[in-house]
Amino acid sequence: MTTPQADKPSCSLCLFQRICRNAGATPALDSPERSLSPASMLWRAGETVHRQGRPVLAVFPVHDGSAKSVFESPLGWRQVTAFAHPGDVLGLEDHDSQAHCTSAVAMQDTRCCVVPIEAVRAHLLRAEYREPMLRTLRRNTERERTLLVAIGSMKAAQRLAMLLLDLASEQRRRGNSGAALTLAMSRNDIASYLGLTLETVSRLLARFASVGLITIRQRQLHIVDPAGLSAVYEDPERVPIRPPAAEPDSSPAIAPSKPLPLRPGTAGPALA
Amino acid sequence: MTTPQADKPSCSLCLFQRICRNAGATPALDSPERSLSPASMLWRAGETVHRQGRPVLAVFPVHDGSAKSVFESPLGWRQVTAFAHPGDVLGLEDHDSQAHCTSAVAMQDTRCCVVPIEAVRAHLLRAEYREPMLRTLRRNTERERTLLVAIGSMKAAQRLAMLLLDLASEQRRRGNSGAALTLAMSRNDIASYLGLTLETVSRLLARFASVGLITIRQRQLHIVDPAGLSAVYEDPERVPIRPPAAEPDSSPAIAPSKPLPLRPGTAGPALA
DNA sequence: CGGAAAATTGAGACTGATCAACCCCGGTGG
DNA sequence: CCACCGGGGTTGATCAGTCTCAATTTTCCG
Question: Where is this region: Disordered (chains A, B) (predicted)?
């Protein structure tokens, strides 16, 4: 555990920036318990930040690096349920529980602040801090529900496109261009998250690359044709089937030709 | 909208029974805003109790009947995300949102109380009422996460067995024996909930029946062999494959022969 | 440099989706 | 009372998308 250095850029997305000295907030006339100066800790790739079932002692804003949330069902089924990046807060959704309901595992060397749970709960009582926190929580449950629907009714290619677009938009949210991203997670993690196998993910990435949607070398991913990816995401039919090697046309690949079928509810495996 | 009659048995599981006059609570020395006497309303089968995206004006404890929660993703994919029975509270998970994030649709004629959202929020501030409410909320997110893992990594038969066991235990929780249940939802709803097609659900139910796990006539379901169902749920291999008509042995069907493989994580499509 | 983990690629099997026909049952109106 | 009708449910045949198993390559790291 080290004393934190005021690393502004990485704090600028933090939920707690307004009340955290580390982020440069001025304590000013705040009452003592309203200002934070949390310690920060470093987790090595593969180490677990918090463990499912263990008491909730703190939450962990990700300063840099990244982590995955892993849920293990009573029967032993494991699944990645979320990816966390700088600005996200590990363990936040458990703030009102006795125990963490997922484990968080660092996917690379990752630095997080350590905000005691009492501080979180105290801040939740103050209306001005409550709202942003709730908004973050809601965004996460929204995301999880979208994932549920995706896994429940969309094809593999759609799900993967969804993830890539999501990662890109996260990337964008924290400044960098959304085009170039470094996947911190393994194919296995991606597969688990999407309810697929790692082979399928690998093949799909190759196919995306072969039709010019992306380029990928190991974990270096470039999104070449965001619109094309969106098309794949939105249209069940638009699963690119073209592993051929030749590149007769160098156009951005796959121009939207079909006016996007509204009401895909009919297409899915089952409706409501 | 009718004036509610004090129908104790149905109120006995209600989250609000301690503070609700309809449930027979004694207002006693409570401060005025702490006691409830909500109106109750009747929804016909198919009518929607609250709609996704609409402002949260109230929550709806189910008095009798049942409903499904339906989520519609931005792209139009629809999926049933939960089934609600007497004692459950429709819209409760949206208590801190501006808008409902799912729609609730009655699956049969259903009576719910109408608890204004302000009352809910007020009660959330009082520690003694906060806890049970949070517990309910957590139970739901736990359930939803289990569903996620189920859809993401379990086989169709396992998922269906899971649902049946879950319905049975819900049934039990509210008094009745868990053996006999009346499915309020259509095959389509079940399929949507489990991420399958209605045909698959139908076939699976037939197979379950053919191997003596259940009997089913229309929507009248009897669970003949709960242990067998659990085995199906827990063991990916134990998918009953035996549509044959003959019934050489009349034993409870499928005695557990294999010692349940621990760590099914290996078996699933992907691990964490 | 060597070994292990991660990723790719291929061939084949199998689950579950799709398409289609039929049935069952309750309701409606002649 | 019965014929018709429509929605929900069943069943069958077929097909496609993914999983599975296995071999190989690449990368990472000591």
Answer: 235-272
